[in-house]
Amino acid sequence: MKLIRTEGPGAKHAAALLQSLEQRGASSLGSVESAVRRILLDVRKRGDRALLKYAVQFDGLADASILRISTDEMSAAWDATPQAMRSVLTTAADQIRAFAVNQLPASWSDSPIPGLMTGQLVRHLAAVGCYVPSGRHPLPSTLLMTAIPAQVAGVPRIVVVSPKPARETLAAAHLLGISEFYRVGGAHSIAALAYGTQSIARVDKIAGPGNLYVTAAKRLVAFECAIDMLAGPTEIVVTSETGNPADIAADLVAQAEHDPETLAIFVTTQLALAKQVIAEAKTQSRGNAVAAQSLMRNGLAIVASSVDEAHAITNRLAPEHLTIDSSGDLEWVQNAGSVFIGRWSPQPMGDYISGPNHTLPTGGLARVRGGLSVNDFVKLITVQQYSKTALHTLGPKAALLADAEGLTGHAAAIRTRMRKPAEKGRRNG
After folding, report:
1. Is 321 a catalytic residue?
2. Which end of the chain is more exposed for a tag (fewer CB within 10 A), N or C?
3. 249 and 105 in one domain?
4. What is the 3-state secondary structure (H, E, C) of the chain?
5. Domain boundary residue among 338, 355, 372?
6. Which of 7, 321, 331, 358 is catalytic?
């Protein structure tokens, strides 16, 4: 980890670094975009023939007949899973489901003036695709985090795709009652979900994190098939004045082991604490090659000149994961995917079992949205109904706005309903 100070001789460098971090995003997707575009077009044009070709090439699929995973195979995976792991999966699923139920928006109606009813209807999407990575690590937790909110929303068709899914992932699918699961990944699976093939019917929305190729594919199909977000490498920021160095370092190492590109940052005003955290992170990452590489490449300890500046830096970074000292710190937090409060809230608890979703915005996207939720799987339909009295109350004002915009047809559609029947008859005559 590198030590950066916002005042003194290194202030200019620190300012430039912070500006570049603030502007980080999906620019790296350009390096794979042309290759991904070719895959998408191929699957769109040739359907299963292209999909299966890429599944063999990239996913090691030996036989097209095993593309779709049967419910029997999922059931067998559950039976083969040790009881302790079954209990863990069940507890995590219950926690995630309870949180999603609390998030579910409600239909409502109101009467802002006599005779006018306005409101909204909450309706689920018809079909969603859940992408579950299975590269460096099997991720049954991602299946739970993507499929359960969709189930709570009421989505009737949930499709899971995952290359070489682990037994635990298949067991999690059985636990949730998933019936449509395909042994495929990469950009070609995104193409199948977005455009449809003979084997995989298209979906309305794709959710879940993936590698650079998956993320680039999601970006390219986003205008034809909705996506949740573009999820890049994991990010962690710990902003603390009083934290325990070993605890802070442990969280930094935990998230850093996801990917060599993980962004791991500690923000404080305490120089001594920053140096202790750097030393602890170095010690704790020994023997963890990915974490050590990530911390060496992207690890930072930023020493701010004041507590207010530390808070401002944190909000500028808009991190995926953020740890703060106390609940009182929530008052200054404006941009973060998920917040962890105090030393007894290690960030990996949120990755697995707390309940809030671990599919979170990266690349600064936390400035404008939160993590994946049940809200990503529903749509809000607005409703309005006027009585004759209500139309006569608001209609003249709306017609004047239409006149001001030069939309005479809009104004006429309102005024024709407000004329008296006799007047209307004379005009027709």
Report:
1. yes
2. C
3. no
4. CEEEECCCCCHHHHHHHHHHHHCCCCHHHHHHHHHHHHHHHHHHHHCHHHHHHHHHHHHCCCCHHHCEECHHHHHHHHHHCCHHHHHHHHHHHHHHHHHHHHHCCCCEEECCCCCEEEEEEEEECCEEEEECCCCCCCCHHHHHHHHHHHHHHCCCEEEEECCCCCHHHHHHHHHHCCCEEECCCHHHHHHHHHHCCCCCCCCCEEECCCCHHHHHHHHHHCCCCEECCCCCCCEEEEECCCCCHHHHHHHHHHHHCCCCCCEEEEEECCHHHHHHHHHHHHHHCCCCHHHHHHHHHHEEEEECCCHHHHHHHHHHHCCCEEEECCHHHHHCCCCCCEEEECCCCCHHHHHHCCCCCCCCCCCCHHHCCCCCCHHHHEEEEEEEEECHHHHHHHHHHHHHHHHHCCCHHHHHHHHHHHCCHHHHHHHHC
5. 355
6. 321
